[in-house]
Protein 1
Amino acid sequence: MEGVKGLESDLEAMRQYFRSGKTKDTAWRQSQLKGLLLFIKENEKLIFNALKKDLGKHPVEAYRDEVGTVTKSINFALHGLKEWMSSKTAKLPRVALLSSAELVPEPLGLVLIISSWNFPFGLSLEPLIGAIAAGNTAVLKPSELAPASASLLANVLPSYLDIKAVKVIQGGPAVGERLLQQKWDKIFFTGSARVGRIIMSAAVNHLTPTVLELGGKSPAVVDSLASSWDKQVTVNRILVSKFGACAGQACIAIDYILVEKRFAPTLVELMKVMIKKMFGENPRETNTIARIVNQQHFLRLKNLLRDPAVQNSIVYGGSLDEKNLFVEPTILVDPPLDAAIMTEEIFGPLLPIITLDNVEDSIAFINSKPKPLAIYAFIKNEKLKRRMLSETSSGSLVFNDAVIQYAADSLPFGGIGESGVGKYHGKFSFDTFSHYKAVTRRSFLTDFWYRFPPWNDYKLLL
Ligand code: NAD
């Protein structure tokens, strides 16, 4: 589909195709999932090239976060599909004598997927897997800010899929807004809370159910770990998930760290050593850190970092290379809490550390902010773990690692409050794009006579 020319008639054709029942076939769904798999397999090199061009991602990172993850998810869906599609029996009250009931998953119809640029394949295809597996027709609008990836999706993906059922439309906010004027059976959006609000208000017109996969400031709490092994593992995991996953341009990246004052110097020293080990003495020359997506985001990060209020907080890094859209992995200790770096989502390789008198204070700190997409808690103390679990609220909670939850098909992925609405991944994706129809089957054989007027003293037995 080129741009939005002929949009209304194209969408009407897709609705009619859905009504033909074709997309409900198990075989059709399987063939589309296999088509997606083949797209990934046959175009792996092109995908790596596009990710290099758009974001400077190293192929190993690109494989881990996009090609490999999506392949895993498609295989998981292919394996589970028949079971997911099967109806599930349900219990009825006694009054429905000689009856049976079931939940029958049915596709919603025509769905819209709008995705973000930071994982342009993963965040487009992961929801598409769910949409197809559930038997829907779908329009995908990737982000214009990763143009090489968007163009590969628009120009190559359709030849692997049923083009009557899946369309890719390229474009930015204007195209997005045009799409939002149409009637959809579900809108699945990945992006910022600002645009999320636009999506939700547009959805009101047609009462369209909406999933919003947003972001925010996800904290990591680091306890004063006793053994040097635990400290090292913690530092390795923090660094790879912050700087080694799209250079911190990830919705579930650690945004900032909370740590006890007495442990902060040790943590910083360990981080300095490991950053050099992972990304070299001259990180500008490394190809293992992704680049900032464009100049606008580069300047946004530059402003966060060049804010006079945070200058004294920078303890490592801080150099910028505008020509190459490179921001050095940077650590800050105790920037003012009202500085933009601590009030806005960072979405880049800047890592503030906030010190606390007691690690237990981290719970109150987190609870004073909007509910995050993720909380990472590097702690061994079981009592504190229990408190973290029961006293905080977030899309996900990971003990002793970060970002790894994204790869789990068995866990719902999504936010809460400001970090999002709805969930997906694995069977949750299938459920997100399905309606569970409640079907009750009654026999004509018999009934309780007191179910019918005139009423008497009997109470209806439920
Ligand atoms: P964005 O909201 O600017 O754009 C997201 C998508 O919306 C793009 O495709 C864009 O073209 C489209 N869009 C922009 N304006 C629109 C409008 N007015 N109407 C309709 N569509 C419009 O976000 P972004 O810069 O691509 O991504 C960064 C944000 O996304 C961060 O906040 C990040 O945390 C979040 N994010 C969340 C997840 C998640 O899975 N929860 C994943 C990645 C990114």
Protein 2
Amino acid sequence: LTDTYTLANGEKIPVVGFGTWQTPDGDVAEQSVIEAIKAGYRHIDTAAAYKNEVSVGRGIANSGVARDKLYVTTKIWNDIVTYEGAVAAIDESLAKLGLTYVDLFLIHWPNPAPTRETIGYEKRNADVWRALEEAVTVGKIKSIGVSNFRPHHIDALLKTAKIAPVVNQLYVNPSDQQEEVVAYGKAHNILTEAYSPLGTGDVLSVPALVAIAEKHGKSPAQVALKWSLQKGYLPLPKSVTPARIVENGELFDLDLSAEEIATIDGLHGTIRLTSNPDETGF
Ligand code: A2P
């Protein structure tokens, strides 16, 4: 869990992150972050929209691990549509987390409803990005990236960006592989982070995954996560259950063969995922 990828800007990022989407604020978030760090995770992923930054920050502060040994990501929400709004949102996230800097700050969605029919995503993202870039310059953020962006959203952003995004965080799991945008990321040196790498739990009963797991004496969750790693992605499994938090970090004694990877590559679209954001339309 201390292994790292090197981002396009030279910063190192731990290859597995602890996801906190749908983790309730309060003791649950604080304790699960503490459990994760105890289990060896060094990378925590949150967002303003998850409404748990305060508790995640407490977990970080009470983990017993020094801040500079941890990698922390948060995200700007859809209601932020101006430069000034983004400047304030960055400071608000830092204050809630109780941190002087975050390692990675992402634009959460490319084309949120408030600006879709008004200024459009090009201007909104360019303005928010400028605020993120300035925060990098003054040391409040180390790296900046995007989430849920399609190639055309990134192409538009690159027209005005001074700093290119180093990460695109996407809903990627064996049943939803996002081939086009993942290929675009590879071509542009943008790391794919996989949120909901277990399909929010939905993919764990897919028979082919279960069969591979049984063969290795591992769990289907571990197989899905290792597939993500062996594809070169950065999985962000979420759990509030201590045993699962540990299990999801025990991936390094498992090696999937090329044939097994090919089998899992073939699972795209095998099940209907209950929370597939692609179906929300943007
Ligand atoms: P819980 O948080 O109650 O432990 P994803 O990371 O794809 O969003 O998936 C998160 C969901 O999968 C949560 O409901 C989580 O439950 C569940 N989950 C996480 N890890 C495991 C695991 N190792 N085995 C079974 N279910 C898991």
